[in-house]
Write a structure and sequence with these properties.
Blueprint lengths: L25 E3 L5 E3 H8 L4 E7 L9 E18 L5 E3 L4 E3 L5 E16 L4 E5 L9 E3 L13 E3 L2 H5 L4 E6 L2 E4 L10 E5 L2 E10 L3 E2 L24 E8 L3 E8 L11 E2 L2 E5 L7 E9 L4 E5 L8 E8 L16 E7 L10 E3 L12 E7 L7 E8 L2 E2 L6 E4 L6 E4 L2 E10 L6 E7 H9 L2 E12 L2 E3 L4 E9 L11 E4 L11 E5 L6 E11 L4 E5 L4 E12 L10 E5 H4 E5 L4
Parallel strand pairs: 3-15, 17-40
Antiparallel strand pairs: 1-2, 3-4, 4-7, 4-14, 5-6, 8-13, 9-12, 10-13, 11-12, 14-16, 17-19, 18-20, 20-39, 21-41, 22-31, 22-40, 23-30, 24-31, 25-26, 27-30, 28-29, 32-39, 33-38, 34-37, 35-38, 36-37
């Protein structure tokens, strides 16, 4: 929809395209016709000016909200608000209705303010006809096209309410598919919550005009009507979207898929919030359990720089060799990429054909001039940017159902190391660590405070009585790490220090034989407690998101703690 089709028809000039000057009291219109200033004032305004229209145009909460608007200036105006269903806002009842209505011809003397009550996002319900035990296909009692659309959020039982499940497709008259498999009992009432769009039309009335039109455009060249001010016609327009709540997951990851972290099982924490909002401080706690036979040691307390997000991007079918680059080994620094939006230098690519230790980086060639003299200096002779749009504009797409915005910017990416030709056409993960990278990729402004990481000390029972021996049989070796774990217990001789576990043998994933650094006499059945490493750690703190963005299509909606940075893991069954 074009919001400014009428603007060009109202622009005026004292001189036409042929250089002729209009008579006094007249001007030329864009089509070359001569119009009197008085007639133009009657048609397009000329008695009083609307200087400012102040309204928060950030996304509206799915639960609805009240927003205040202010019109500043002098003259008269009317205001119309329509939703996506072509219903009109009634400024008296504070509700939307089918019949046309508006805030009609209001006098403006300095300023005029009022409130707009935006309702909860459109929600419908229907009943499941037949239990869903596997898969994503759901059969309903009535025709699904009348109660839902693709992108609607689905709730109705504990599993659905805790997740972010949407309508993935409408398959037949009474059948639709979920975005992920969830078990649903027969007869359950499901709710389908959608998004909405509100178009706001501010008309200058009875000789009033809008202040001078200041146009703002997005990077793709389209007009940003919410950032633009004033108008060259009697109409000024804004748009507000009502989007579903977004759900952020906090979790942990080994970005390099290190084998020692295999099987790590974090309990994700879910945070539900709304785009463009500030969450305030939210406490979180993420228990992380190591895989079977694996142990974790805490090296230090994590920081916000240990947090990361990743997106998946596609490399082009052939490299972009740099002038003079040595490609004799069929390796290349520079490659086409399907979307560089949100990426920055310093981010880390990971993939089957990515050279280990690679980062996104600019490429520079340097020459030494005046070598051997007092004026010797380095001069950059060739520079390739880390990311280059190659003269192309981005593509911005707003999903008609969810109202979420997607930006795609094709271009090139340059790596810090040459990559093998096998990288062509690969999908790679791009990891960004720290708040700046997270904001660049997601638009989310994240802060952490009061971070801690604690160890759950493992325990075990002595399996057989030990007399003055360094060998101890236990019923469980889980969480014990050789040369790290120390052991304490009622009969442990700690006169010098608690002994250290120096060897784990006959480890079955439960029972084990431990070798200690000092001989002990222990009774069968007594409890031993191990420190220094364990099977479970818990990461806790507070998170605050000062600007919540959309969940982009190539981001999972999860912010991870990078375990590789602040912990060490081992597989004690395979030392």
């Amino acid at each position: 929809m074009s919001y400014h089709d009428t603007y060009s028809s109202t622009r005026q000039s004292r001189v036409n395209a042929q250089g002729r000057i209009a008579p006094s009291g007249y001007h030329y219109m864009p089509d070359g016709t001569l119009m009197s200033d008085a007639e133009h004032g009657m048609m397009y305004g000329g008695n009083g000016t609307i200087e400012l229209f102040n309204l928060d145009t950030k996304n509206i909460k799915a639960s609805g909200e009240k927003r205040r608007f202010t019109v500043v200036g002098n003259g008269e105006f009317s205001l119309i608000i329509k939703n996506e269903s072509n219903n009109y806002y009634n400024f008296t009842t504070r509700e939307f209705q089918a019949n046309s209505t508006k805030l009609n011809i209001k006098k403006l003397q300095g300023s005029y303010s009022d409130n707009i009550v935006f309702p909860i996002a459109p929600t419908t319900t229907d009943t499941v006809n037949g239990a869903v035990t596997s898969g994503t296909s759901v059969t309903m009692d009535t025709a699904v096209a009348s109660t839902m659309q693709v992108g609607d959020r689905v709730t109705g039982n504990a599993a659905l309410n805790a997740a972010s499940v949407t309508v993935a497709s409408i398959d037949s008259t009474n059948v639709f598919s979920l975005s992920e498999a969830v078990a649903i009992s027969d007869g359950v009432t499901l709710s389908f919550t959608g998004s909405d769009q509100y178009d706001i039309f501010l008309f200058a009335e009875n000789g009033t005009k809008h202040t001078y039109y200041n146009e703002v455009r997005f990077a793709d060249g389209s007009i940003d009507i919410n950032s633009s001010t004033g108008s060259n016609s009697l109409l000024l327009q804004k748009v507000i979207y009502q989007t579903l709540d977004v759900r952020l997951s906090l979790s942990t990851i080994s970005p390099n898929n290190l084998a020692v972290f295999t099987g790590q099982d974090p309990t994700q924490q879910i945070i539900t919030t709304q785009t463009s909002k500030n969450t305030g401080k939210i406490p979180f706690s993420i228990p992380v359990s190591a895989g079977a036979t694996h142990s974790i040691r805490i090296n230090r307390t994590p920081t916000v720089d240990d947090m990361l997000v990743f997106v998946t991007r596609n490399i082009g079918s052939s490299a972009l060799p740099i002038e003079g680059e040595d490609v004799s080994g069929s390796t290349y620094y520079r490659w086409p990429i399907d979307n560089m939006d949100g990426l920055t230098a310093g981010m880390t690519p990971v993939g089957a054909n990515i050279t280990v230790g690679t980062m996104i980086s600019s490429y520079e060639e340097v020459a030494i001039v005046m070598e051997g003299t007092e004026k010797e200096k380095s001069v950059k002779t060739l520079v390739k940017r880390a990311l280059d749009a190659l003269g192309k504009k981005p593509t911005r797409t707003r999903d008609a159902a969810t109202k979420r915005l997607t930006t795609v910017q094709t271009g090139s990416v340059t790596f810090s190391k040459q990559q093998a030709a096998a990288l062509a056409s690969d999908s790679v993960k791009i990891y960004g660590h720290g708040p700046d990278a997270i904001k660049s990729i997601t638009g989310w402004d994240v802060e952490l405070s009061d971070l801690t990481v604690t160890l759950t000390k493992p325990t075990a029972l002595v399996a057989t009585t030990t007399v003055n021996s360094t060998t101890v049989n236990v019923d469980s070796g889980d969480g014990v790490m050789r040369f790290v774990s120390t052991v304490d217990g009622f009969n442990i001789d700690s006169s010098t220090a608690n002994p250290t576990v120096t060897q784990i043998s006959s480890y079955s994933g439960s029972t084990a034989t431990l070798t200690l650094s000092a001989a002990q006499s222990l009774e069968a059945g007594e409890t031993l407690t191990f420190d220094g490493a364990g099977r479970t750690i818990t990461i806790s703190g507070n998170i605050e998101i000062k600007n919540v963005g959309d969940i982009r299509s190539d981001w999972s909606g999860t912010i991870f703690f990078d375990l590789e940075r602040f912990t060490t893991a081992t597989n004690e069954n395979n030392p």
